[in-house]
Amino acid sequence: MRRLYALFLLASSILSPLKIYCQSDEDMLKSIFNETLTNGRSYEMLDYLSNEIGGRLSGSPEAAAAVEWSRQEMMSLGFDTVFLQEVMVPHWVRGEKEVVKVINSDRLGTFDLTACALGNSVGTGDLGVVAKIIEVDGIESLRKLGRKNVEGKIVFFNRKMDPTHISTFAAYGGAVDQRVFGASEAADLGALAVVVRSMASNNDDIPHTGTLIYKEGVKKIPALAISTNSANLLSKSLKAEPDLELYIESHCQMLPDVLSYNVIGEIRGSSKQGEYIIVGGHLDSWDLGDGAHDDGAGCVQSIEALRVLQSIGYKPKHSIRAVMFMNEENGLRGGLKYAELAKKNQEKHLAAIESDRGGFTPKGFTLVGSEAAKAQLLNWRPLFETYGIYDFGKPGGGADIGPLEEQGTVLIGFLPDSQRYFNLHHTTADTFDTIDKRELELGAASMAALVYLIDKYGIDGKN
Amino acid sequence: MRRLYALFLLASSILSPLKIYCQSDEDMLKSIFNETLTNGRSYEMLDYLSNEIGGRLSGSPEAAAAVEWSRQEMMSLGFDTVFLQEVMVPHWVRGEKEVVKVINSDRLGTFDLTACALGNSVGTGDLGVVAKIIEVDGIESLRKLGRKNVEGKIVFFNRKMDPTHISTFAAYGGAVDQRVFGASEAADLGALAVVVRSMASNNDDIPHTGTLIYKEGVKKIPALAISTNSANLLSKSLKAEPDLELYIESHCQMLPDVLSYNVIGEIRGSSKQGEYIIVGGHLDSWDLGDGAHDDGAGCVQSIEALRVLQSIGYKPKHSIRAVMFMNEENGLRGGLKYAELAKKNQEKHLAAIESDRGGFTPKGFTLVGSEAAKAQLLNWRPLFETYGIYDFGKPGGGADIGPLEEQGTVLIGFLPDSQRYFNLHHTTADTFDTIDKRELELGAASMAALVYLIDKYGIDGKN
Q1: Same domain for B131 and B274?
Q2: Oligomeric state and partners (chains A, B) (predicted)?
């Protein structure tokens, strides 16, 4: 009896890899989703990354901890290789809590606005900045006002995210130029500082940070975000009292670059080892929350995608990698370095999937690639409809994988539901308690499923 | 100049209703979604219902407040008629906080389990119940054990919701028989009481209440839910120590029926006044949370659907109603009364839409109706895809509208994303702070859009 059982075990061990390859795509996707929903590790991983390590801006000790954590995590999962890529990253620090207050209102006296410095901004120093305020609804309006109306003032950018866009990312895209370029545009006209309405879908008291880019040759002036409630209050107050003055104080500064790393876990391909399919997220986050959605979710989903395929016994033809990119938020150095090394090492990257839109219920995948690639992605859609995933092929990739485009890599963006994202994006509210375990897992499973399909059928990167 | 302007105004007022009728369906849906996302009232209404009134179980003072609130709210919106339908409802009260504890563990001593009485359950009285525990994974296993193993014990139903179902409602449907029928099945075999694993997708310390139904002629025994963490702990403990005893104490009771009401707001049809399209939710909720998702959301979305159509100047051909059903949770008396009166008053109900699956991002609509009705619903799907809404025509209606089926009414269930719902369903965690404004509004807009399409094109109720 024992001998029979041993024979049975032997037969199983020989046949089970075969079984995987005899399965239909429908059955494979079912295995992937079942494994993720039953034995998923992504939620537990994200708990550690969010609650034990927390916010992890590039160059911080927490970012270093996140590098070591993800390296150990992928080692412990038994991937074939785990390795680091060196990358020098900017090191911006926020310093003491920012102050923004209206100081001369006859109606309300002195009152505070909730605020935070924008990433990469210079600080005001201890003495702060005091000036009159000029409100504008964007860069174009600012330019029309010209130097005579702007010089010596604090510019208040107050264009809202348009609520009628169904994708909140479209609404974000329509407003974020104020945050990214507003400071230099205002400085060009002699402004002393800028405050920007937070890039938020909702009205509340939470300011949203995010990166700004200073234009070369233009004076760097302090830039802060104020919460949407504060922006509404300030705008209303300015209508009643146009001569209001603002006091702003911030202590942020840019320190010298720091050595950091992309962290990469790899399962080697069986027949096409030198060709890669990657899934990734960015390991750095802003300092204010714990970066659970942006982009802890994308990191753990990427690791989980590899774990699930490994766990159900799937042996990929191509080499597949989970890539934790460093410094997406305020520099993109990790994404640039990854593409640079891929080129240098002559690694052919077939497709790159990025998850960086939060850990919410999956809706589909976006694409930057050839018409053939798009047709193929759309062709796979019926397989995903069973899982409530319907939205395929709209244009879009991801910031970190973007630099791979010129190497002919098909770029794919994971597209989760976007409605809640810009309530918490880049804020103290981006915390683990807003993550739903099943939503996170369904995203990881859909990413694993897409890796499987690309590995099996390939995808045409040529235009 | 002023005269010209007056002429312009006059022309506008004549032409604007025409304009609405010259719009394409695409434009009408855009108007509906834009109005809801820009000037929506549903979030504000739900804030009041949840935070000012709170939990509102049938027969409670809070349920009476909810009736009066929704009547006033719909009056203030200027609907053509707002009226009440009398309905006698059960009046179950929870009484003092329940106690469930293991009292004789050698390993852990005495320890508490987090618990709540099931709705409609009898209480244990002050002395509680003490007995050994028999764990089963469902009613079938219980029956197999037979009287000799069950008599004098407390039955512990511990079958989980299956995490591999993508719709959490399917997982709920696969487990909820334990909660609804477990008590009478156990009593039939001489059990003293039952504790049931909470109907929850996640593991936490929050017990989920919900209705039970006692079988006629069988002794009514106390029934409580314990949280999933408590169920896991109890199950593990029983493996180590099978002779554990449980002490349970609950003070719930069923009081005499109380007069309550369905609340109905109506916009009268222009050409088919005697034919109705209704949208509804249930006004009652369990007592533990504030009933924001279950089903405050459905109520305010229904009111909002009418408000939006009215606000953009749409004049329906059919009469349309927002119906706040009373007593869905533990009796369905309101839904039964509504259908009874519709029949008696010879009101032809073309279609009934119910929102009772939470206020999350809309995914589509389910249907109970003819093949022609299904084909028509699927035909409208492309109009909704722009709004991320893809899932049409799966079978399903709603509890409150169910009794209308025999009158030939097409039943339609609003289908939002289901992943988070069974973390909070029937618990203290079903609170307004878990509502996302945009998600709620997108649901209301999709319901308004469907009412518009049904009003314009009709829908075939015959099989």
Answers
A1: no
A2: Homodimer. The monomeric form is inactive while the homodimer is active.
Q: Is B438 on the interface with A (CB under 8 A)?
A: yes
Whether A9 is in a domain gets the answer no
pLDDT band at B374, cuts 50/70/90? very high
Q: Is residue B189 situated within a structural domain? A: yes
Convert the pLDDT of each residue in A133-172 to its tens digit.
999 999 999 999 999 999 999 999 999 999 999 999 999 9
Residue of A nearest to B438 (CA): A419
* The last residue of a domain, from among A253, A277, A297: A253
Is any Cβ of chain B less than 8 angstroms from the Cβ of A392?
no
Locate the chain B residue with the closest alpha carbon to A38. B163
Q: Tokens 């509890």 correspond to what residue?
A: B399
Residues of B with CB below 8 A from A420's CB? Answer: 436, 438-439
A436 vs B417: CB contact, 8 Å cut-off?
A: no
> Does the CB of A388 have a partner CB in chain B at under 8 Å?
yes
Residue A83 has pLDDT above 60, yes or no: yes
Instruction: State whether residue A22 sits within 8 Å of chain B by CB.
Output: no
Option in B166, B388, B439 nearest A363 (CB): B388
Which H/E stretch holds residue A129?
strand A129-136
Residues of B in contact with A423 (CB under 8 A): 436
Whether B162 is covered by a domain: the verdict is: yes
Which of B188, B192, B197 minimizes the C-alpha distance to B160? B197
How many residue contacts between A and B have a Cβ separation below 8 Å?
A: 67
Please name which of B238, B312, B318 lies closest in space to residue B274, comparing C-alpha atoms: B318
pLDDT, tens only, A424-441: 999 999 999 999 999 999
Q: Could you tell me the residue range of the domain that residue A125 belongs to?
A: 98-253
Residues 6+ apart with CB under 8 A from A432: A46, A47, A50, A51, A290, A292, A296
Closest CA to B128 of B192, B218, B189: B192
Nearest to B442 among A385, A419, A438 (CB): A419
Residues of A in contact with B390 (CB under 8 A): 385, 390-391
Backbone angles phi, psi at A317, to 5 degrees: -75, -50
- Residue in B330, B322, B213, B191 with CA at minimum distance from that of residue B260: B330
Residue B126: both structure tokens together: 């002050």
User: Which residues of B fall within a CB distance of 8 Å from A29?
Assistant: none
A166 touches chain B (CB under 8 A): yes
pLDDT attached to residue A270: 97
Is B197:B120 a contact under the CB 8 Å cutoff?
no
Q: How far apart are CA A403 and CA A213, in angstroms?
A: 19
For residues A399-437, one letter each, b for 16 or more C-beta atoms within 10 angstroms of the residue's C-beta and e for the rest, the string is: bbbbbbbeeebbbbbbbbbbbbbbbbbbbbbbbbebbbb
Optimal mutation site among A166, A312, A424, interface B, most CBs of chain B within 10 A = A166
Q: What pLDDT score was predicted for residue A21?
A: 62
pTM (two decimals): 0.94
Interface ipTM: 0.93
d(CA B249, nearest CA chain A) in Å = 32
- Tell me if B387 and A438 make a contact (CB, 8 A cut-off): no
Confidence class for position B460, pLDDT limits 50, 70, 90: confident
pLDDT at position A280 is 98
CATH number at residue B220: 3.50.30.30
Q: How far apart are CA B97 and CA A38, in angstroms?
A: 34
Reported as a single tens digit per residue, the pLDDT across B62-76 is 999 999 999 999 999
Taking CB atoms and an 8 Å limit, are B442 and A34 in contact across chains?
no
* Total number of domains constituting chain B: 2
User: Measured between CB atoms, does B391 come within 8 Å of chain A?
Assistant: yes
Residue at a domain's end among A221, A236, A253: A253
